[in-house]
Here is the input.
Amino acid sequence: MIKKGWSKFRIAEVADIISGGTPKTNVMEFWDGDINWITPKDLGQLEGIYAYVTPRKITEAGLQKSSAKLFPENSIILSTRAPIGHLAINKEPMSTNQGCRGIVPSEMVKVKYLFYFLKSNVDLLNDLGTGTTFRELSTRALSSVEIPIPPLQEQQQIVAILDEAFEAIDQAKANIEKNIENAKELFQSKLNQIFSQKGEGWEEKKLNQICEVKDGTHDSPKYVNAENGIPFVTQKNILDEGLSFENTKFIRKEDHDDFYRRSNVAFNDILFAMIGANRGMACIVDDERVFSIKNVGLIKTNENYRSKFLLYYLKSPQAKDYVSNNSSGSAQGFIGLGKLRAFPVPFTSIENQNRIEIQLDTLLQKLNNVESNYIEELNCLEELKKAILQKAFAGELTNKAVAV
Here is the structure.
């Protein structure tokens, strides 16, 4: 049921929907011009709701000799595949690739009102998408979506209410995210304090003086599905929070003995990412049925040290500085096995290691509990946003219809 004084229209009745296109990438004269050209990826990287400039630009020739179109400013750019639902209002004339649609509102609808409506219906837009490789929202499906339209003055009132509410919510979110960051910095500060000041009986040793340090297998295993395989870990699977098996490949179970002999990963060993964006991250193995590849350092456990104590040191600012200062390669960055074996480690008695481990475990648990509470607050704020949007388009934010 629609609010009295409101009307319901299909989007195609209140806006023009225009598809995008990509000039030929091998024709130099089509690129590096003055015309903004945006993609779904660019939309996803925007921090606010407005798009001013784009990473890539096309020329007038590129615009004329492709299916790309130029949308006027204050249109809505919507990604319609990979993924469906990124949104922005362009503040400069803009073109898009074929993964976006430009929605040019008529005089019947305020651009920001339409933007908020689409924002509140991203799930619906995804449901309307079709395709097997990736879902795509067609112009026809988008055109058929119905939108409740109040008089223009009431649209302005709704937008003003939403702007004010979302500004307050976004500020609250920023404060919470800052608190989460402060909690992480507090833990880093404690690590820095412990491993820089040390104490009586401490000494510095190279990592390979206290344990065996090697890299993973250099073999090329045969991969199988997860049901019939054992996880094969690369540097991408190593996170500070622990091992992630997302997008993990699996080796054959029958190769277990052969690969175990060569990679020799065991419970309580430490895996260390030697290359790439995760370089320097480390985690403890809590499942013996994993195998690591050559760009993963394997720090073997033994009776001389506690794995958790060493892991905490590898997360410290001092350890991160060593990794940064001893990496080679400009593209991904790589810390070689020799540098890993020579890693300077502050070393103390098992009793001290255990005491420090308990101290850091306790602090980390408290901070994790705090972070969990903050994350729950963030989720609640997102739900609040959805609830406010739902009320807005049900006509519950304004008391009555306002005549134009």
Summary: Residues 7-149 form a domain with the Adenine-n6-DNA-methyltransferase TaqI; Chain A, domain 2 fold (CATH 3.90.220.20). The chain has three domains: 7-149, 150-183+349-404, 203-347.
